[in-house]
Amino acid sequence: MAVRNARIVTVSGPVIDKGTVVLRHGLIEAVGENVAVPPDAMVVEGEGLTVYPGLVDGLSTWGMPGAAPATAPTTAGRGGRGQIATTPLTPATPATPAAPTAPAATSTRVRGPEDRPATTSWVKAADEISPTDRRIETARSAGFTTAVTFPTTGIFAGQGAVIDLLSGQKAGEMVVASPAGQYISLTRGGGFGGGGMGGGFPGSLMGVIAYVRQIYLDAEHYKLVKEAYARDPRGMTRPEYDRALEGVLESKQILLPANRLVEIDRMLRFAAELKQRAILYGAREGYRPEAADLLKKARVPVLMSLHWPEAPRDANPEDVDSLRTLETRDQAASAPALLKKAGVQFAFYSDGLEQPRDLQRAVKKAIDAGLSRGDALRALTLSPAEIYGVADRLGSIEKGKIANLVVTKGELFDDQTRVQFIFVDGRKYTPVVETPGTGGRGAAAEGPGVNQ
Amino acid sequence: MTKLKILLAASIVLAPLGAETTVIRNATIMTVTKGTVKGSIVVKDGKIAEVGEKVMEPAGAKIIDAGGQYVIPGIIDCHSHIAVDGSVNEGSVSVSSMVDIKDVINPEDIAIYRALAGGVTTANILHGSANAIGGQTLVLKMRWGRDAQGLIFEGAMPGIKFALGENPKRAGNPQGGRGATTVEARYPATRMGIEDTIREAFNEAKAYKAEWDAYNAKAAAGERLIPPRKDLKLEPLKEILEGKRYIHAHCYRADEILMLMRVADDFGFKIRTFQHVLEGYKVAKEIAAHGAGASTFSDWFNFKVEAGDAIPYNAAIMQKYGVVVSMNSDDAELMRHLNTEAGKAMRYGGVTETEALAMVTLNPAKQLGIENRVGSIEAGKDADLVIYDKYPLSDFAKVQKVLIDGNLYFDRDQEVTGRAAKQAEKQRLLDKEKQEQQRQQPQRRPGA
Questions:
Q1: CB distance from A172 to chain B under 8 Å?
Q2: Fewer CB atoms < 10 Å away: N or C end of chain A?
Q3: B5 in contact with A at a CB cutoff of 8 Å?
Q4: Contact in structure between A342 and A296 (CB atoms under 8 Å)
Q5: How many CB pairs under 8 A join A and B?
Q6: In this complex, is the C-beta atom of A127 within 8 Å of any C-beta atom belonging to chain B?
Q7: Is B96 an 8 Å CB contact of chain A?
């Protein structure tokens, strides 16, 4: 297959004003101004079209059965005692037919950390993919060819996978890389004398943090004991196999939620204490100069939610938000430009948005707030690929990389632009007509736990 | 926008961090330890350099003229729950010593700034009282504008919260009947059970400590061993047994106060402070003998059965028996006028002005083991100072300026003059948002 006479935005190299991309066996065979179209190729006339690398959702639940949108809920930012984070662990309305992903870790009352509450660290997204998730097609129509998708239920939710957004293929064919890191969430309901959601430990933010800390201490100890046993089992009590710790030990990086500046500071310190390679997600207050400084200094990459905070609809007119909240809504979308300037590695993620128009608008908002088009594109292609260590196969239009492309009429992220074709693993798809009736908002925006 | 940013930045940290030399002149200085003098205070490198009627004013020093005004040491609140993200209670378990307030400091809690405006410069931030043995606690300075680490009172001994009576046993008695929650009952449900819970925890901690001590001894002798599993629940209890962590125990009734002291004696540790301790006046002699401090309310009681047998003379009586007594807030609002709480001790019980002031300055400093740094106005101590326009132990006094480590963190004039600009900026953002919404409205519903 070949797309010829098209404008090609390679991302890794200069833009080719008029050139050809040749795809074969799911890979990019050649790209350039003077590339010959092989005689056996099916030709797509690219006159007036632009070819981009397929977009990558840096943190997603696409393809996960019954998953909540991956969000970084924020803890209460003001007030004294008794403020609790109340984001539920499970969505009110599953985006896809529910499937049993959350093992019954919380079905019996948890007494303490030794019961390993809300932990399914061993679960791998790659093993759980639901190729029939309808969001795959919707997202692909917006230009997404790849998602780094995670189980998101629990504190240690499980390990992600980089997947290609194919339809009608076997789940195994969709996996590009696995595992992609451990998804950690710090939210559980709780309160005075009561447990968290479903009862039991931990019921507070500090409880969750203590629990995560204990897990890493246990994992370190478990490793020591196992190694000693492997060296010489004679005369030594056999260590008990612990799948929760196995899952933690095999996760080479962790995703930690951090929206507010205070949370960014807290999680950077926490990651350093745990001695884990971390990626922060959320970053709503990434526009604050201190945030960029901290991230730059820690050299920790950030996944930025594209779900920019908005004023709540139908709010009580008597309630006036704080200056900080107003400022955040006003400036949140300027964060990518500021992080870029500061030299912080970042990528975007959909955070519950999936309708092409919403995604386009969200990216446009960042561009209007100062991010260059090139950098916006990079944050959805090569940057996420780099963050997850798959830039050798994804994220740009280069010879030898996976044939994931988006072909548009007009500039990507412009209002009038329409996606013409999408290539995933060299397979050609045409976009579906946008689902009507969502009022231009992502379906998940009405659900709980979204970035608001 | 830029103007506002500068303004905001200015209001957050009023003074540069590398503290300059400041002289507070012409003030009535209530030192707490060295009487009341009319004169000046010299502040250098964050410390009080000199106090007296006549001082050597260093050349180039910043001058604050406090003519007709009063200076007291920064107020210390021995019991506060501000500046915490999320719940202050890990209420799921009866022993929640694994959690630590240090992990959830929120330096952007506006209550910090409000406490500053009430003259508070240091506060003991406690876990809630839902558990017999609660979470780890720490002491913060109200350095508004600094990050979480910047608030921590360097070198102050960490603490832990204990709680007795109704609160920790409440979860053992979930209310039945209509609308009852399905939360499973949690042991204990009685005062007996609370004692048992604490004893059990320390039995466990003793065994844990023995395991580590044995390991450390063998390791020191050169043996190569796998260390025991580190248990975050037992670590702080081990620290208590080693005298490395203070216990701040929430309590009301005399019987439970005596109970906890017996438990402490049995296991060989000390209670550092009894908090609230409304029936402390009944067992003041015993509290003094144990060496515990008492941190109470002036006249806040009768809010539940166990807080019923309380009198406003409590603080004065305990002090008379030799207990180090402080007045605390346990509340972000009360925290803003602890000076008047101290004043009430003069009215009820007739303690002297200095003794009353000490109850919100030097005494809480002693209870937190930081009296060598703060709590009085003496050369060598931290320059944590509050300037009031009128006699401080009165309802009419307003805080004018607050210094911590010699830096100005609150200035009433700047606060008041800055309000208009903040309000204007808020209105601008609200208007902008409204316009934006109106602009998008027609697009959203195209005449459907």
A1: no
A2: C
A3: no
A4: yes
A5: 192
A6: no
A7: yes
> Are residues B87 and A82, on separate chains, in Cβ contact within 8 Å?
yes
Q: Which two tokens stand for residue B1?
A: 């926008």
Domain B2-73+410-443, what fold?
Urease, subunit C; domain 1 (2.30.40)
| Residue A420 belongs to some domain of the structure | no
Q: Do A190 and B90 touch (CB under 8 A)?
A: yes
- In tens, the pLDDT along A196-245 reads 444 689 989 999 999 999 999 999 999 999 999 999 999 999 999 999 99
What is the least distance, in Å, from the CA of A219 to any CA of chain B? 10
For chain A, the average pLDDT equals 86
Task: Report the gap between the CA of B324 and the closest CA in chain A (Å).
Answer: 27
* Beta carbons of B84 and A80 less than 8 Å apart: yes
Instruction: Confirm if B248 and B159 have CB atoms less than 8 A apart.
Output: yes
For B49-75, b/e burial (b = at least 16 CB within 10 A) is bbbbeebeeeeebeebebeebbbbbbb
Domain containing A125 equals 54-391
In a domain, A398, yes or no: no
What residues 372-431 of chain B have any CB closer than 8 A to a CB of chain A? 422, 425-426, 429-430
> What's the pLDDT tens digit per position in B404-444?
999 999 999 999 999 999 999 999 999 998 898 888 765 55
Q: In terms of pLDDT, which residue wins out, B286 or A92?
A: B286
Do B157 and B369 form a contact (C-beta atoms < 8 A)? yes
Contacts of A321 (CB under 8 A, 6+ apart): A311, A329
On chain B, the residues whose CB falls within 8 A of the CB of A83 are 84-87
Distance from CA of B330 to the nearest CA of A (A): 9
Is the residue at A12 inside a domain?
A: no
DSSP 8-state class, residue B95: B
pLDDT, one tens digit per residue, over A295-325 is 999 999 999 999 999 888 887 878 889 999 9
Indicate where chain B has its CATH 2.30.40 domain(s).
2-73+410-443
Q: Does B445 touch chain A (CB under 8 A)?
A: yes
Say which residue the tokens 């402070």 belong to. Answer: B273
pLDDT > 80? residue A402: yes
Whether B240 and chain A come into contact, CB under 8 Å, resolves to no
Kindly report the pTM of this predicted structure: 0.90
Is A35 part of a structural domain of the chain?
no
C-alpha dist (Å) from residue B256 to A429, B116, B163, B186, B307: 73, 34, 10, 20, 13
- The nearest CA of chain A is from the CA of B27 a distance in Å of 34
Residues 6+ apart with CB under 8 A from A423: A1, A23, A54, A145, A403, A404, A405, A406, A407, A429
- The answer to whether residue B90 neighbours chain A at the CB level (below 8 Å) is yes
Spatial strand order in the sheet of A144-149: A55-60, A144-149, A161-164, A175-177
For chain B, how many helices (H) and strands (E)? 13, 16
B353 touches A: beta carbon within 8 Å? no
Q: Please give the structure tokens belonging to residue A438.
A: 């969502």
- What pLDDT shows up at residue B176? 52
Q: How much is the ipTM here?
A: 0.93
Q: Which positions in chain B touch A211 (Cβ < 8 Å)? A: 98
How many structural domains compose chain A?
A: 1
Tell me the H-state helices in A232-347: 243-249, 261-274, 289-298, 323-331, 335-342
**d(CA A213, nearest CA chain B) in Å:** 8
What's A274's domain CATH number?
3.20.20.140
Calpha distance B216→B242 (Å, rounded): 15
CATH top-level class of B75-374:
alpha beta
Number of Cβ within 10 Å of residue A269's Cβ equals 16
Partners of A79 on chain B (C-beta within 8 Å) are 109, 111, 332
Contact A262 B148 (CB under 8 A): yes
A330 vs B91, B92, B432: nearest CB: B432
* Contact between A225 and A198 (Cβ < 8 Å): no
